[in-house]
Amino acid sequence: MKLAILIHCSDKSGIISSVTHFIHQKGGNIVYLDQHVDKEAGIFFMRLESEFENNISLSGFKEEFANGMAKKYGMHWDVHLEDTKPKMGIFVSKYNHCLYDLLSRFNSGELLVDIPFILSNHQNLKYIADQFQIPYYHIPVTKENKESAETKQLDLLRRYEVDFIVLARYMQILSPKLIDAYPQKIINIHHSFLPAFAGAKPYHAAFERGVKIIGATSHYVTADLDAGPIVEQDVTTVSHSHSIKDFIAKGRDLEKIVLSRAVKLHLSRKTIVYNNKTVIFS
Amino acid sequence: MKLAILIHCSDKSGIISSVTHFIHQKGGNIVYLDQHVDKEAGIFFMRLESEFENNISLSGFKEEFANGMAKKYGMHWDVHLEDTKPKMGIFVSKYNHCLYDLLSRFNSGELLVDIPFILSNHQNLKYIADQFQIPYYHIPVTKENKESAETKQLDLLRRYEVDFIVLARYMQILSPKLIDAYPQKIINIHHSFLPAFAGAKPYHAAFERGVKIIGATSHYVTADLDAGPIVEQDVTTVSHSHSIKDFIAKGRDLEKIVLSRAVKLHLSRKTIVYNNKTVIFS
Amino acid sequence: MKLAILIHCSDKSGIISSVTHFIHQKGGNIVYLDQHVDKEAGIFFMRLESEFENNISLSGFKEEFANGMAKKYGMHWDVHLEDTKPKMGIFVSKYNHCLYDLLSRFNSGELLVDIPFILSNHQNLKYIADQFQIPYYHIPVTKENKESAETKQLDLLRRYEVDFIVLARYMQILSPKLIDAYPQKIINIHHSFLPAFAGAKPYHAAFERGVKIIGATSHYVTADLDAGPIVEQDVTTVSHSHSIKDFIAKGRDLEKIVLSRAVKLHLSRKTIVYNNKTVIFS
Amino acid sequence: MKLAILIHCSDKSGIISSVTHFIHQKGGNIVYLDQHVDKEAGIFFMRLESEFENNISLSGFKEEFANGMAKKYGMHWDVHLEDTKPKMGIFVSKYNHCLYDLLSRFNSGELLVDIPFILSNHQNLKYIADQFQIPYYHIPVTKENKESAETKQLDLLRRYEVDFIVLARYMQILSPKLIDAYPQKIINIHHSFLPAFAGAKPYHAAFERGVKIIGATSHYVTADLDAGPIVEQDVTTVSHSHSIKDFIAKGRDLEKIVLSRAVKLHLSRKTIVYNNKTVIFS
Description:
The structure is a homotetramer of 282-residue chains. The first copy, chain A, has 282 residues and is of the alpha/beta class. Chain A folds into two domains: 2-81, ACT domain (Alpha-Beta Plaits); 88-280, Rossmann fold (3-Layer(aba) Sandwich). Helices cover 34% and strands 28% of the residues of chain A. Chain A has eight helices and 13 strands. Chain A has helices at residues 15-25, 58-73, 97-107, 126-131, 146-159, 176-181, 202-209, 244-267; strands at 2-10, 28-38, 43-52, 76-81, 88-92, 118-120, 136-138, 164-167, 186-190, 213-220, 230-237, 271-274, 277-280. In chain A, the strands form three sheets. Chain A has a seven-stranded mixed beta sheet with strand order 7-6-5-8-9-10-11. The longest helix of chain A has 24 residues, at 244-267. The radius of gyration of chain A is 21 Å and the shape is globular. The first copy, chain A, starts with a strand and ends with a strand. The mean pLDDT of chain A is 96. Chains in contact: A-B, A-C, A-D, B-C, B-D, C-D. The A-B interface holds A 36, 38-40, 45, 193-197, 207, 209-213, 215, 229-235, 239-241, 243-244, 275-280, 282 and B 36, 38-40, 45, 193-197, 207, 209-213, 215, 229-235, 239-241, 243-244, 275-280, 282.
């Protein structure tokens, strides 16, 4: 049995020693430990993986941890049993590159998830859902039907017990209600190196500004548009010789890779969010 | 004799053919030609280098070009005799890394310039000027003396017949008068990947935002702060494990390399500015 | 009508002027021109694109060019009519990431080709061919049947009139006969930054050597294994914390992007091969 | 008082817990802990930093650690008191860029070292030593005088009690005796992305091969030329348009940055060497 434990709390002396001692007493062998202290903010972070030869009671472990360590240090914490398969909902609009990338990784066994459905405000990508035999729900979104569309989305998410959502170039702004229902569990890909060029048409804005580097950013969605905690970023060079169309084509390759990396980091429980930033244990 | 010719004008049919024909007739051998068309803006750009076995009259060449090609197509153009050494003024404040980098390149023969002086609003870096035996002028800048400081700066620039200015982490905003006197001839290094984090303390802002990539941008100075045409950019990865101090240290390496690249591009006449952007022939 | 013309020959004075004059006389407007001189080798290279308002006779153009320019300067040259769709044969073995990437780009209209078939020495990836409704030919290759397998491959290539071949992680060494039949028309992806780690198991070798950077290289296939002209390379950082499995996963993302870029450069006629190297007009 | 402890040994259960418990008992607060297990090789690595409010006896700490932890787990280990300034000897030949870079960082307080001398087989860079007021020793090396040159070098290193050596583009092969005297304490910069292009003239070889990426590698020197444990690597893109001279100029910028990074990692005790590889705690 293998557990991943994520912790953050006010930085104090003795936390590492206490936690590793606790794990050791429970018969666990620590196979990975990484910690970090944000000295500006005075916050301690730790991720550890521990193997247990004899299967222990997970609920018992959690209870004891909660009443001991966690209480003592005022920890935010999470314990995950490895090899559980979360349910990942995918939202798309018309662009197919991120969807194709996610599904081909899924089909290759690279992503340990279930994909109960693909949801879109358009019909365009249904053929890909069909190719990969995944249910496709078309929920159009207009100015008028925003509320009912949101209700349908939430119904779908609940019915399929979706654990987290990937916006694979979904071109609609999510409702606050939906965002609240999935805190730090909605991963978006934005087609610029944020905070530059937030909002609509970032490639056009980048072309206009004459930058020599373009990028893509994957972040957790919050109520502020394109301002959530950044999980992953990457960039590529451009020059005057590239048109907006070239920017878009080069950007596509960034977007799909950056989004997939973020999904994999989230899946392997390597992210902690605090102060609208992330700690990424990689 | 070798000439570099830079041209831009409205895009029309036949420009390349006309210009190359003209050069050929003058006995020139074209050893480099690169052209670009910004189709959005409908502008044609060309850079060519031509060798002439027999030395021709440069003023004659220019006159004929002006009255022929240039008039016909309404060109903005420039002809440069290779191996002339422009005079480069350096402005610094307290940080030494960009200055050291420029001067060590200069001392190695990597930069074909004269450096008549280093100007600073502080005394701190005089020791480096001394190390490299270059005159150092200390012109303090305060709220009160801005105008007189500017006058002194302009006097110095005129006296030494400075051709272009490099702001090697000069932490003062230049006066509009000075900027006007050196259009597209003042190269600044800003310590972020513009347009993200323009203005003061970009590393602090980047840390606060939790970005995974930081950068540096070299640009021509215009009246709008940090908004001039970008010449060169580069980036490096950071993570949660880096403090602001780490950002600054990593950034220093970017800044000096990016600034030097921009200076070399400017020196080798490989930049054309239009619409607040650059064409870089590299 | 739009033509792309690729030229290389011994470097002499007047080539650019002659060619642009010729195009102009034929009524062509040069919309792109890039040239390069390898001064070490004394070779001149040029790529130009020209638009003709009135459709001209392509064969007439070629004949005149051959007897004029080309003879005079001893040119290797090629003229391509834009928007022709070449036939691209894909060879795969068991890894699916490059195949998925190519086919999803193909399906999105990003690659202007026909894909008459996918050929493999294994059955494993037939399901992907089915997903994208492309014929899949299974031609097993063993020590014993090498010759007959090769014959089958060549038959297939001829029957479908394949123009160029992409080895999308095809794990067999091609026969010299096949390589000879497609000179500079077989594009391979090798999973290392060549010339480091040529041959089998490059990720294992990279791990063993303890490198901090891994890469992928796309090159034209020649008789020498992994030693053909390099079209495109890219790299990514690794650390001691990455296992061989991690190298392979990170490498997959490089491989598919690098291969696709090479295919697109080849398709858009932006490559010239000489001295076992490439000139890439980008 | 702050200690950095580096450990590696066969991987066993309970090491982290034991060590952190030990530190805690001694009154230490662990402010940094990173560990790594090479599962292929079955080796455990750990780096930790611990602050002690009351100054403890370093020799006492070491003795107790040696007889306890270290014996029990068969550890290779090292304890370093922070803020000690090691003595760094610099070897150069004719290229000045790495030397300038190291010395300007040294002068800025970026490198916490003493630099007792610069040693060279040429007179060329004496002027830089003079600029920075550091003793310069000229020890010519020829086929005939190799042995006596080596003796002089070793004398110098002993006299000044040099802790580690930086080869800042020193173009001579060190004698085995010197290498043996400084195991894992000689840092070299090689001007290629090793293992590609080991040995002489790597930029020429890279140009010849037509690579699209060049690099630089910093490694600990071992008896095998350019085959020691890699500390740091970086790369930059090149194209057909770059001459060998361009490769060299672009490479210079890589070399100096990569070497400085390696020196800083070594200085901050963030490197462990095993199996001719490095673990870099960054």
